[in-house]
């Protein structure tokens, strides 16, 4: 007791405040990750789920997934395509809106607040809304396109392998634009107005102001937005599951939905855990690369 009192006599009292969060992360994050890794090295199906001892198969699940399961590679490609497509449009549109609403006009703040609504609405609700909008017979998208004369027949957005991915990408872009906009807007507020005024006096036009002041000073913000956006988008599950469930014909199957399908529809728990670990490893590597890049820049 005396040693503990002496330990917390100095600045070590901070450990007490960190302890609850550490315990929470250890139990609700650390334990599931370790348990999932162990599960992926076993042969666990519906028959062996309740068995006292589960067969250890090493990397056999991973080998079978990469060599025999073509759906895994399809899911990996779909995940990459979905992530890059969403990031590209989310960032460009979010950046443009952030620059626009950074200007001083009366209704800038109220409208910017309204544009945050897509980010605040639960993803499952958004998915149901877009599923209805992209409906073949009652969807407003087909009605709008026919009204403009762009199409003559209804498009089967969610049941056609060629258009299903486009539909889920559009839905996720709508969700992610406010996230990009608000973070970039915050970054814009940190740029001193004096820099623009001085550059304008020296004869710089708007293009030079944007490329020589705005973009360079927003570099840390842009990097954070892209990395966080990549992580959030790469692991999207609920949006795709509600809209298409990975179909049709695996055209929108991503790693997260495929892991769920293997585990809770096909009852191949170990292979489902292996797919989840593949997703985890990819995101972990991306995070390490980003952290190494940030630390190298701080040291330079």
Task: Please tell me about this protein's structure.
This protein is globular. It is an all-alpha fold. It contains 15 helices and no strands. It has one domain: Orthogonal Bundle (MetI-like fold). The model has no long low-confidence stretch (mean pLDDT 88).
Task: Label the structural class.
Answer: mainly alpha
Question: Class in CATH?
Answer: Mainly Alpha
- Shape, per Cα inertia axes: globular
Radius of gyration computed on alpha carbons: 24 Å
Order of helices and strands: HHHHHHHHHHHHHHH
Report the strand count.
Answer: 0
N-to-C CA distance: 46 Å
Question: What portion of residues belong to β-strands?
Answer: under 5%
- What is the third-level CATH name, the topology? MetI-like fold
Looking at the overall shape, the CATH architecture is: Orthogonal Bundle
Low-confidence stretches: none
Portion of residues in helices? over 70%
Number of helices: 15
| CATH-defined superfamily | MetI-like
Overall average residue pLDDT = 88
- Whole-number tally of structural domains: 1
Biggest sheet character: none
Keywords, separated by commas or semicolons:
300 residues, mainly alpha, MetI-like fold, globular
Question: Outline of this structure?
Answer:
The protein is 71% helix and 0% strand. It is mostly helical and 300 residues long.
Q: How are the SSEs ordered, and which strands pair?
A:
Layout (H helix, E strand, L loop, with lengths): L1 H6 L6 H27 L19 H9 L1 H32 L6 H7 L2 H4 L2 H11 L6 H8 L16 H26 L3 H9 L4 H12 L1 H16 L3 H6 L11 H10 L4 H31 L1
């Amino acid at each position: 007791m005396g040693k503990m009192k002496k330990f917390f006599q100095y600045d070590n009292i901070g450990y007490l405040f960190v302890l609850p969060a550490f315990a929470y992360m250890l139990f609700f994050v650390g334990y599931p990750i370790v348990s999932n890794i162990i599960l992926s090295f076993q042969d666990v199906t519906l028959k062996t789920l309740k068995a006292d001892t589960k067969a250890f198969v090493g990397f056999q699940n991973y080998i079978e997934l990469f060599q025999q399961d073509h759906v895994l590679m399809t899911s990996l490609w779909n995940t990459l395509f979905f992530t890059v497509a969403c990031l590209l449009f989310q960032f460009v549109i979010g950046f443009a809106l952030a620059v626009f609403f950074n200007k001083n006009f009366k209704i800038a703040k109220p409208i910017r607040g309204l544009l945050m609504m897509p980010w605040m609405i639960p993803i499952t609700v958004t998915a149901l809304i877009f599923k209805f909008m992209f409906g073949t017979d009652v969807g407003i998208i087909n009605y709008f396109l026919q009204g403009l004369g762009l199409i003559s027949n209804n498009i089967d957005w969610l049941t056609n392998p060629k258009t299903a991915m486009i539909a889920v990408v559009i839905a996720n872009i709508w969700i992610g634009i406010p996230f990009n906009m608000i973070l970039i807007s915050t970054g814009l507020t940190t740029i001193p107005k004096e820099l623009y005024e001085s550059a304008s006096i020296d004869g710089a036009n708007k293009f030079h102001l944007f490329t020589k002041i705005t973009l360079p000073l927003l570099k840390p913000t842009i990097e954070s937005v892209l990395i966080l956006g990549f992580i959030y988008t790469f692991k999207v599950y609920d949006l795709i599951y509600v809209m298409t469930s990975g179909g049709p014909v695996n055209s929108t199957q991503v790693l997260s939905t495929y892991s769920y399908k293997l585990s809770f529809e096909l009852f191949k728990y170990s292979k489902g855990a292996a797919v989840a670990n593949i997703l985890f490893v990819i995101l972990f590597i991306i995070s390490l690369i980003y952290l190494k890049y940030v630390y190298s820049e701080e040291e330079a």
